[in-house]
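So, can you check what follows?
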Amino acid sequence: MSTPLFVDAGIQASKYCNVGTFAVLIFDYCITIEAESRWVWNRKWTFVRLIFTISRYLPFCAIGMTFAAALRTQYYPGESCVRYGVVSHVLHILCIIAAEGLLIIRIYVAWNSKRLLTFLLVFPVVCFVSSYILSDTQLVFNFTNMISNPIPDPGNCLFSGGRNNVFEYSALLLYELVLLCLMLFVRFRRYKNGIGAFQQIFFKDTTRYMLYIMIMSSISIILTMAPPITWVSITDSPQILMHSVLASRILFNLRESEGRPQTTRHKWEELTDIQFGSGRHSTVRSEV
């Protein structure tokens, strides 16, 4: 029995995209290793640096596992890929959590509110727990692919996903939207009278991070629901790549900006180790 062309095209496109993402991750690491050695390696270890290290290096394991699964072409009798898939999925989630952890710290620094910090920690838990509960239901039917998948999937080793992942992407999109509103509010309400170069980079890069993640999540939702189901896995690794690369670039830009001589200086209170500095720290909250 022949296989429909669109099924082959979907799986193959997903494999190409995820393999290419691993190559982009390695390339980005090579061109930013100098910045990391300059702004990170000589700093003391703090909680923020730990989170950064996880968001920087764990994607190599997560995307690497997806890369290995994409290159798989043979199935052996009695073999099961269930545990491999679960571990890969957990690593993907941890990568996102680490990158979002850095975002939470930046927003907390801008607001300097313990109540907001509690909200920032509780709200994502509620969002993603709800998404996992919904993902186990049959609310999303494969209405765009009424014909059952003719490709056999022995041991769940087929490089394909399910449409219920749309709930996870939707939760991430909602979460980023709420954080974007918080960031824009504090930017134009508390710092509307003028900020320094470091604070400009802080707000600009953080806002770009959230916008790019929202765009990527929207694309993931569309590619999860619109095309045939074999195309669903096409955004697995790009989602992780986007989080890791943007989180790293924001940190490097902040550290570089901090090292530049400032012509106009403002009185900033030392509050947090958001830049995991050694000796002195910078924040974005001015003394009134």
Q: What stands out?
A: The longest helix spans residues 5-39. The CA atoms of residues 48 and 274 lie 6 Å apart. The helical segments are 5-39, 47-70, 82-111, 114-135, 166-190, 197-225, 236-259.
